Amino acid sequence: MRKRSFVAVAFAALLAVGLFGLAGCTGSGTYQPELKSAEVAPPVIGEEGTLRVGVNTENPPLAGMGSGKIIGIDVDIAAALADELGLKLSVVDVGSDPAGALANGTVDVVLGIDDSASDGDFWRSASYLPTGIALFALSPDAGIPTQDSGATFAAQVSSKSAWAVSNGFGESSLTPADSLKEAFEALEAGSVQYVAADAVIGLYAAHGQGLDVSIVAMLMSPTGYCMGVSNENVDLQTAAGDVLARLVSDGTINVIERKWLGTTVALGDLTVVSDLTASAADAVTGSDSEDTGDSGDTGSSDSGDSGDTGSEDTGSGDSSDGSDESSDTGSGDDSGSEDSGDAGDSGSSGDEDATE
Q1: How many CB atoms lie within 10 A of CB 40?
Q2: What is the DSSP string of 149-163?
Q3: Going by C-beta distance under 8 Å and a sequence separation of 6 or more, which residues neighbour residue 279?
Q4: What is the pLDDT along the chain (356 residues), one digit of tens a residue?
Q5: In this structure, are strands 50-55 and 88-93 parallel, antiparallel, or unpaired?
Q6: Measured between alpha carbons, how far is residue 20 from residues 6, 16, 27, 31, 126 in Å?
Q7: Is it true that the peptide bond before 43 is cis, omega within 30 degrees of 0?
């Protein structure tokens, strides 16, 4: 009996302590994390306490519309960038005119800038996301095709990827597809050995279809996406550029890539097929690589696109946790854009309605 009394008293004491602890936890209200101090302010940015980031909503999965909001890889990166700078985030659709938006002060920075493009008079950061025309296969051991291997490819009709295949391997090797969805279906069915597509957009399309693919080679040398800031705004170039570099180095952007693409994008160690085809042509003609002739142009990026890194209309999904200040400007398709062709949310690709 004495033992039971002792246990009861001990339990009551513990309960009292627990209730007291709970009262202490709940008495102060809802927990809020400590806000970071703003690292920049006007006139370095245009609006006190807010970083205004421009994106192109016609370029999913970098940016697109979902459930009335702007979402995508660039939106998530913008959210991380603003947070590290101690600022709120406002995402603005600048369409295909990032230079104009920077020049007129509509935004402070722009994301999703092709670092190989020469248009637009503004400062560019180092690349934060690599891309380029890639060759996808069902197995990482599929091998690298050569001109005389008889390899077969699918690519979206009239796309830069289709051009690169035809230019490097001949038109007979290409199976045109109305969308990347259709191209990857042909790969899955065994109708073709490879799919040629922009690396980022191809990974997004395959991920949305639940298809496990590997990038086995590049058709052209990789390029990348970078951030743009006004040439005159040196302070913001330094502040935002340093933070963006840190997001790359600490793995934050890798996490965002895995969210949208199912994997990270690593292209630096891949073989560039255009280099192989150019070397083969040189061996046959006896010319060196400086002598362009005709064969040296097989897959070289003189088309100005450096690997269809342009906007593919994928209709990005509604899984981004970026800004609430999104503008519903709609989306469209530019000539030269690839269309992944899947509708759906959470990183799946959207309706195909355009050619690359």
Answers
A1: 19
A2: TT--EEEETTSHHHH
A3: 289
A4: 444 444 444 444 444 444 334 444 444 456 556 668 999 999 999 999 999 999 999 999 999 999 999 999 999 999 999 999 999 999 999 999 999 999 999 999 999 999 988 888 999 999 999 999 999 999 999 999 999 999 999 999 999 999 999 999 999 999 999 999 999 999 999 999 999 999 999 999 999 999 999 999 999 999 999 999 999 999 999 999 999 999 999 999 999 999 999 999 999 999 999 776 555 444 433 333 233 233 333 333 333 333 343 334 443 344 444 434 333 333 333 335 576 554 344 344 433 333 34
A5: parallel
A6: 21, 6, 10, 18, 54
A7: yes
Residues 6 or more apart whose Cβ sits within 8 Å of residue 346? 317, 318, 319
Which helix (H) or strand (E) covers residue 33, if one does?
Answer: none
The 3-state DSSP class for residue 101 equals: helix
Going by DSSP bridges, is the β-strand pair 50-55/109-114 parallel, antiparallel, or unpaired?
parallel
Token pair recorded at residue 223? 């390029």
Q: Which pTM does this prediction carry? A: 0.74
d(CA 251, CA 260): 15
